[in-house]
Write a structure and sequence with these properties.
Helix content: 40-55%
Structural class: alpha+beta
Order of helices and strands: HEEEEH
Strand content: 15-25%
Largest sheet: 2 strands, antiparallel
Strand order of the largest sheet: 1-2
Number of strands: 4
Shape: rod-shaped
Number of domains: 1
Distance between the termini: 68 Å
Bound molecules: zinc ion
Radius of gyration: 24 Å
């Protein structure tokens, strides 16, 4: 099998493209994961909309801004 210089160049360019695509995909996935992790560890107050961090096992947390009580998973139904 004989590989010419132009073939090699095409392979290198394709590898570069693949590398860029893979790198982009990984950063995209990492970003999404980080966002999800952040969302699961933070709570948005249903009253004033302030985002604050809370412990994972806490079912009922109190907003530090307006001291409203936010129930895990139930705040959407409350409106
Ligand atoms: Zn609040």
């Amino acid at each position: 099998m004989i590989i010419s210089f132009s073939d090699l160049l095409v392979v290198i360019v394709m590898l570069a493209f693949v590398w860029i695509a893979v790198d982009w995909a990984f950063s995209f996935i990492a970003e999404r994961r980080e966002e999800r992790r952040l969302r699961s560890s933070t709570r948005e107050c249903h009253l004033c909309g302030k985002r604050y961090s809370e412990e994972k096992r806490v079912k009922l947390s109190t907003c530090p801004k307006c001291s409203a009580r936010n129930v895990r998973g139930g705040h959407r139904k409350l409106g």
